[in-house]
Amino acid sequence: MSETIAFTRGVPPAEAFPTDQIAACFDAVIRNDTSVVLQYGQQAGYPALRQALAAEYNVDVQEIMVSNGSLSLQDLVAGHLIKSGATVLTEQPSYDRAITTFRRRGAQVIGIPLETDGISVERLEAAVKQQVPAFIYLVPDFQNPAGATLSLEKRRAVIDLANRYNFWIIEDIPYRKLRYQGDNLPMLREIDPQRTITMSSFSKLLSPGMRVGYMVAPANLVKTVTSLGEDTYLSPVLPTQAAVAEFIKRGWLDSNIEALKTLYRPRWETMTKAAQTHLRGAQIFTADGGFFLSVMLPGSANTTDLVARAKERNLLLTAGQSFFADTDDGESINGERFVRLPFCAVTPEQINEGMQRLAGLL
Question: Which of 74, 220, 233, 343 is the right S-S partner for 267, CB 3.0 to 4.6 Å?
Fold first, then answer.
């Protein structure tokens, strides 16, 4: 029986975890700061980690909230900003769990078509003119699920629209530090912090199991969301936050990021080449970093029951339709043509074999 190859979740492989260093950090903080890290409290997050993030983003510590993963923060912010009858705009396709979260909070989630250089600004403005959203949710760097990066011109255009029409921007940047080629573009908050809520986490840089996410936002919004967090989960997970703070304090984060890029770059290169080789005729969203690239298969491809047929060949795929919100023009989208291709948790050999299996199904 052939090996099962998973092109499903965007997760780090076990070999990516700095296990010994994380263990040393946990041991240090539990022994040296017992009365804080093993107790209730510190609702806005572990103080040393908030201070480290405030220094990184050059903001006041009151503009930082650290919580139990960035999806938890998205849910809390959505609960605060989404009112009855509200819409939320996303890229199309977008992060499936974010779409689910915003819908659960009562919003109609409308997707704006994604182009190779990011969201269509023309279609975005048309949607905003029709109804000003509670916020727009963007993954501007190496987008999940597509892998695309929002261009500098479009970053400025989105900020301009937010200022003219008075809505929030959530920029979710968990992959930003995992760039494999090219130069960094400024974050949206670097262009204009007044309309921007920046969210990220340490899931892709250290460990998803630690559940440490954070938000950079105006102090009054942080205060409100902190209160919602306390009413929801009482207290953040302080041992993991303290361990991350200790990891940063010891100067290990930058070198760990470089080690991750060294591990992931050959996998990224292999997936990019394999998509171009085996999926000719597909629209390929290439990535300069992160965890994913993706393809929109041509209409001539056999995509009927693709996920089930792939599983029969021991190739695991994620159903493409889950990444699509409601359309901005009322037209239906065949999500079965969309395939997200995570590459970080699979070896180059598995990538080549998996892509050959995928091509054989089409």
Answer: 343
- 113: which 2 tokens? 């078509």
Identify whether the C-beta of residue 165 lies closer than 8 Å to the C-beta of residue 128.
yes
Considering the domain architecture, whether residues 144 and 84 belong to the same structural domain is answered as: yes
Q: Would you say residue 330 has pLDDT above 90?
A: no
Contact 189, 198 (CB under 8 A): yes
In a domain, 239, yes or no: yes
Q: Which of 204, 226, 249 is the last residue of a domain?
A: 249
Share above pLDDT 70 across residues of the chain, in percent, rounded to a whole number: 100
> Taking Cα atoms as reference points, which of 352, 316, 324, 339 lies closest to residue 7?
316
- What Cα–Cα distance (Å) separates residue 194 from each residue in 63, 197, 198, 218? 12, 8, 11, 7
Q: Compute the average pLDDT of residues 32-50.
A: 96
Are 172 and 295 in a shared domain?
A: no
Instruction: Kindly report each contact of residues 184-189 with a partner whose C-beta sits within 8 Å and lies 24 or more positions away, as own/partner.
Output: 185/140, 185/141, 185/149, 185/150, 185/151, 185/152, 185/155, 186/152, 186/155, 187/140, 188/138, 188/140, 188/155, 188/158, 188/159, 189/57, 189/216
Report how many domains make up the chain.
2
Residue 121 lies in a domain: yes
Three-state DSSP state, 324? coil
Query: Which residues are CB-contacts of 240 (< 8 A; sequence separation ≥ 6)?
Result: 210, 211, 212
Helices (H) and strands (E) in the chain, counts: 13, 14
Q: What is the pTM of this model?
A: 0.96
